[in-house]
Every structure is written in C-alpha cells, then in structure tokens.
C-alpha cells in the first residue's frame, strides 16, 4: 500500500511540475526579456547573453517583436564582446525579420550603427533579388497558360481567315490573285474576263439583230450565216471566259498564302480590284 501511495505521490508531483514548467515557459519569456532589457541599458552584455541565449534556443515567443528585441540585444552585445561574426548573424536575422528596423542612434555605439547600415543595404538587395525571383517564377508559370490561351484564340481566327480566302478565290475578275498579292496577274485576268464578257454580251445582241421581229427565226439564208457567226462568237467568248475563270480559281487556291494578309492589305487589294473592274466594265 505504501508503494502505491509513493507512486501516486510521484505522479501528482510530476503533473504539478509539468503545469509549473509550462506556466513558467509561457510567462518567463516576457519576464526574461524585461530583465535583459534592464541589463542592456546598463551595458551588462554578459548578463544579457546569459539570459537570452537559453531563451533563443527554445523559440518560445509570442510575436515577432520579441524575436526582434532578442536579435537586437544579442547583436549589439556580441559586437561589444568582439564577436563580430555572431553579431552580424543576429543583426542580419533581425533585418530579415524586420527590414525597416531602426537602431536608436543615441543608445547604439557608432561602429554597430555602421555595421547595421551595411547589413541593411546588403539585406535589402537580397530581399529585392528574392522578390524579383518570385515575380519571375510567377510570370514563367503564367506565360504557358497565356500562350496556350492565345493559341486557342488564334487558331479559330486563322481558320476563319483562311475560309474567307478560299471563298474569295471563287470571285471572278482576278479577285483571288489580288488577295494573294499577285497584282499583275490579277489585272491580266480581270482584263481578259472583262473583255470576253463584253464580247459575249455584244455577240448576243449582234445575233439577236438577225432574228425577225415576232418570230424565233432569221429572215433569209444570208442573214442566217451572219446569225451563226454571231452565235459562234458568243459561245466562244463564253467558253473562253469560263476557261479563264477556272484558271483564276485554281491558281488562286494553289497560291493561297500560309498566313492571311493584314486587313489593311485586303482593303487595298479590294480597292485595286474594283478600279480594275471599272476600267474594263462594259459600257451601257
């Protein structure tokens, strides 16, 4: 029974110690920092380090301001003791935590202020490089997405433009050649088709002039010969017109550009086509 009593007592004691230690851990941070600040004001760096070094290893802080105070006091005290490497480490950690941290010029040795200023410049440059690297990484991550979206948008546009170019190839008077940038060829085709169309229409009216009014036949055998000649000219002109038209369409389709021409070029080519068409229009 005594053994059980001893075990129970030890258990309760351990629990009490645990609660006590956790309470001390939570409450001692502020108290230790307060004691360190008083020692720091008295320039008692040995005591400052003895108080803060164990606290630093626990990392049991409530907020970043407590970290900043610790880095500040340790950095200055290490420098005062001639431990420049440790001082630089603490002050650099302070600047990475709070890049705009400012030391009190009246309470800080000039050499520490000089070191802190150099470290601040160095730290700001490193932070700037890190920020630029992050922005670059974010940009590179977004670039493929944007490029993919642009390609998806561009492909339907190209498809529509090419379909328009194919349809335009079937327009007579060399429009397909003008569209493809072959102005000279387009002008020759437009002139040929215009002339053949004019000849076909003229031959039609010439043939009809031999038809007796009110009938579908010709007046005599002599006029029948002229009628036949006019009809032959009409059909020949029509056949040649169709031949030139088929050549124009085939040539235009075979020579379509790989990428559609800019809209300004299309407007210019359309204007040239209309001018050429007006030049060879059949007079009324």
Blueprint (SSEs and pairs):
Layout: H1 2-41, H2 45-58, H3 64-80, H4 84-97, H5 110-168, H6 175-179, H7 183-208, H8 221-254, H9 263-279
Helix pairs in contact: 1-2, 1-3, 2-3, 3-4, 4-5, 7-8, 7-9
Descriptive keywords:
mainly alpha; 284 residues; 0% strand; disordered N terminus; Serine Threonine Protein Phosphatase 5, Tetratricopeptide repeat; 80% helix
| Structural class estimated from helices and strands | mainly alpha
Strand content: under 5%
Return the CATH class of the largest domain: Mainly Alpha
CATH topology of the largest domain: Serine Threonine Protein Phosphatase 5, Tetratricopeptide repeat
Radius of gyration (CA) equals: 49 Å
Shape-level CATH architecture of the largest domain? Alpha Horseshoe
The end-to-end span amounts to 134 Å
Shape: rod-shaped
Mean pLDDT: 76
How would you portray this structure in words?
- There is one protein chain.
- The protein folds into two domains: 19-133, Serine Threonine Protein Phosphatase 5, Tetratricopeptide repeat (Alpha Horseshoe), CATH 1.25.40; 168-279.
- The chain has nine helices and no strands.
- It has helices at residues 2-41, 45-58, 64-80, 84-97, 110-168, 175-179, 183-208, 221-254, 263-279.
- The radius of gyration is 49 Å and the shape is rod-shaped.
- The chain starts with a helix and ends in a 5-residue tail after the last helix.
What does this entry show, briefly?
The protein is an all-alpha fold and 284 residues long. It has nine helices and no strands. It is rod-shaped and about 140 Å long.
């Amino acid at each position: 029974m005594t053994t059980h009593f001893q075990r129970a007592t030890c258990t309760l004691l351990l629990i009490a110690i645990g609660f006590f230690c956790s309470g001390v851990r939570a409450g001692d941070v502020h108290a230790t920092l307060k004691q360190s600040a008083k020692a720091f004001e008295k320039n008692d760096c040995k005591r400052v380090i003895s108080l803060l070094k164990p606290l630093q290893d626990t990392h049991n802080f409530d907020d970043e301001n407590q970290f900043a105070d610790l880095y500040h006091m340790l950095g200055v005290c290490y420098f005062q003791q001639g431990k420049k490497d440790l001082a630089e480490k603490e002050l650099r950690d302070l600047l990475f935590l709070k890049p705009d941290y400012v030391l009190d010029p009246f309470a800080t040795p000039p050499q520490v202020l000089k070191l802190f200023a150099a470290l601040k410049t160095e730290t700001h440059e490193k932070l700037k490089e890190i920020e630029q690297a992050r922005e670059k990484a974010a940009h590179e991550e977004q670039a493929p997405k944007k490029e993919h979206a642009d390609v998806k948008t561009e492909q339907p546009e190209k498809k529509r433009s090419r379909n328009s170019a194919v349809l335009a190839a079937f327009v007579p008077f060399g429009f397909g050649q003008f569209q493809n940038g072959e102005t000279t060829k387009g002008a020759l085709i437009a002139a040929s088709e215009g002339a053949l169309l004019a000849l076909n229409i003229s031959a039609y009216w010439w043939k009809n002039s031999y038809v007796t009014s009110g009938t579908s036949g010709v007046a005599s055998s002599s006029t029948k010969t002229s009628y036949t000649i006019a009809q032959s000219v009409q059909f020949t002109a029509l056949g040649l017109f169709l031949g030139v038209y088929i050549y124009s369409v085939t040539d235009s389709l075979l020579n379509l550009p790989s990428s559609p021409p800019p809209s300004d070029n299309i407007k210019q080519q359309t204007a040239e086509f209309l001018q050429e068409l007006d030049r060879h229009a059949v007079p009324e």
